Amino acid sequence: MKKIVLVLFSLSIIVTKAQEKTNNQVKEKQIEGVVITKTKKAVEQKADRTIFDFSEQPQLNNGNVLEGIKKLPGLVSTDIAGMMYQGKILDVYLNGRPLNITSNELNSFLEGMPANSVDRIEVITQPGAEFPATSGGAIMNIITNKNANKYLTATYSGNYSFTNYGKLRSRTSNSLNLNARNKYFGWQLNIGQNYRESMLNSNQNDLLLSNTDRIGRGYFAKSGLTFDLGQDRLLLNYDIYHNKNSNYTDSNGFADLPYIPVKDSIREGYFHAFDAAYTNNLRQEAVITYQKRFSDKSQKLDFQFGYTKSTSKFDQNNIFRDISYINPNENFPRFSDGLLLNNESDMRIANFKVDYSQPIKILDGGKVSFGGLYEKQNFDTQSRGLTNLDYQRQTASTYLEFQAKLKKFDFTLGSRAENYDISGITRVIDSTGAIVQKNLIPFNKFKLFPNASVQYSFMNQVSVSANYNKKISLPSISALNPNNTTFQGPNTQVTGNPNLQPTIFNNYEVKLSAFDYAFIGYSVSSAKNQVAQIIRKNGKNLFNEQINISSMRIHNFNVGLPVPFMIFSKPMSEIMKFDFNPDKINFMYLYAGYQKHDIDNLNNKGFWIFNVMTQLILPKQIKLTANYSYLTPKAGYFYFTAEKPFSNSLDITLTKKFLDNRLTVSVFANDIFNGQVMQVRSNPPSGEAVTLRTKYDTRNFGLSINYKIPTKNKLAKEDPNILNSSKKEDNGGVMQQDSK
User: Fold this and answer.
1) 707-722 tens-digit pLDDT
2) Do residues 424 and 436 make contact, with C-beta atoms less than 8 angstroms apart?
3) CA 142 to CA 117: how far, in whole Å?
């Protein structure tokens, strides 16, 4: 215990003194007319969230976004149950707006985004009243913003990696970021592409074994314009993301198969098949933001209108199929089943919101914030030309939140009122060929969602906080989608559930934080109607479905601790001299978390998550970063038990900067020991259990470069962020725009 206290104490002094030194240097440099950019923190702990910087961490930004996210300490990401952070279900946002997708569609979207296009990721564990109550347990906000400059600047980022599982597979990504400003407006354009070849092996209870070669192609363009209108500002943004994926699957298995010579008859047999599946996703977003500013910089009024259109097409074609029937043995000639799946979806969301905040005289000072949001969503799906889901949602909400300070205490108290009107219809074709239409279970309710938090600061950068909030999570469109958008074999059925009901969360948390990196905390989320995936077996058929869990609780204990290596080699008297740069010291960051899913009628065991990140400064200022993560097996994760660890990987990155730090070159190796594999046993509430094993080609090696083309004018001044931003971070808030 004394060693831990010593580590925390020494680190706090190091950080504090280093910041003082940096501030003094900045003041001295600014006298000469030079603007110095402050070095970003790798991890920053705040009362309601944790911020991970991607832009300056090569071990996170050398692949795609999904690969970087999986390296974050405390985050669990699986194909079967989505993403969780420190025991809380994550609602994923991109630049302050929800993506409204989950599961395999979310993974595909994040795989199509180069990690070097991300500036930082904010995980908001305690969303306040200003966030929609539909944020659920927590929010992961992926921020891709950059800064625009007074003079034209450009930054190029490139990445190449390869895997070698049976054959060589390559992955490349390239992006270019352009920034400029003239006397009328500022603009920014960020464009990029990626190409990725990958492999997937799976075994579903020995009934279906498959090997898939995957080819993904992605393109994106993000544009922004900003106009200064006196103190006010007008921002215009348009983004487009396009992904085209091809999957070629060789599969074999044992199933109850249609006996082709006799109509409507079934026989046991073995099959061997080859299928080609094609996915085409297009997402477009347009946002208009008007920011009204006042003489008091802390008084703000924002108006924003946004429109999102997202379309998806999925086809699966059977190239050939071989069948060998048994009892009696009979081989059927090779044939083709042709088009097996032909599915489409179309999502459109329009929203308008208003946010206002101003300081108020309460206790030792405070702030009041209020606003409103109206959002309308239409979502429909088609299968072979039949519209089998027509879904509409209208949400009207308003919020009021107070923040106040009293000596060493900080208080937040707020509430959000939301009214939901959800309806729709489903259509299916019955055995006679007739179309049967049914209404969805309607959800038309008005609800209040309170939130409260208190934080006490023992000293500078050391505080304890307690938080509570009530949230709701609406079923994602991918969970509602009745169509299959993944590979389907002769004995597998993958479907969504258009009758899923919203989930209500009550979230509680107590946390002690010290110096950004060190913390210890406990949280519990109590959920009603939690949406979960189940996989069950009936005979030789496998079913993958979405259901509501009537009630469950997720308990989570977590601790993070930085350990600078100098405490083991130098006396405290020498450490106290502060003759070093804390950004260039050797250290280790330790994280451990314990999580337990408490579900009625299910005896789930808890599991531990361990993460160790080490930074070593080698000769020639080469930085070595090693990241090891491990999740203990034989534990329950919703309706699954992990037979092998979800996470078991070692990643190493070597980084060197050249040309006055304008050029950054990294070489990396991910999952060096090839230990990343998912093997689970399902525990469905009905039906037989299923054992699943999935292996991606996670071991890969590569090279990443980032080159900042220098401006001719070294005094070029930076403007505020203009790419897809709605608000600037302020007093613990998230996703807020600069107030200048």
Assistant:
1) 887 765 444 444 444 4
2) no
3) 10
**Is 463 within 8 Å of 455 (Cβ atoms)?**
yes
3-state SS track over 172-208: EEEEEEEEEECCCCEEEEEEEEEEEEEEEEEEECCCE
- Which of 86-100, 394-408, 649-663 has the lowest average pLDDT? 86-100
User: Which SS3 state, helix, strand or coil, does residue 42 take?
Assistant: coil
d(CA 174, CA 338) in angstroms, rounded, equals: 37
Other beta carbons within 10 angstroms of residue 616's beta carbon come to 15
Average pLDDT over residues 658-681: 90
Query: CA-CA distance, 648 to 668, in Å (whole number)?
Result: 17
Mind giving me the DSSP string for 417-482? EEEEEEEEEEEEE-TTS-EEEEE---EEEEEEEEEEEEEEEEETTEEEEEEEEEEEEPPPHHHH--
CB 526 within 8 A of CB 553: yes
The reported pTM is: 0.80
Q: What is the mean pLDDT of the chain?
A: 82
What residue spans of 519-636 are helical by DSSP H?
Answer: 572-575
**How many C-beta atoms lie closer than 10 Å to residue 406's C-beta?**
12
Most confident option among 54-63, 144-153, 181-190, 246-255:
246-255
Question: Is 479 within 8 Å of 102 (Cβ atoms)?
Answer: yes
* C-alpha to C-alpha distances, 293 to 184, 234, 352, nearest whole angstrom: 19, 11, 19
- Which stretch of 39-43, 58-62, 658-662 has the lowest confidence by average pLDDT? 39-43
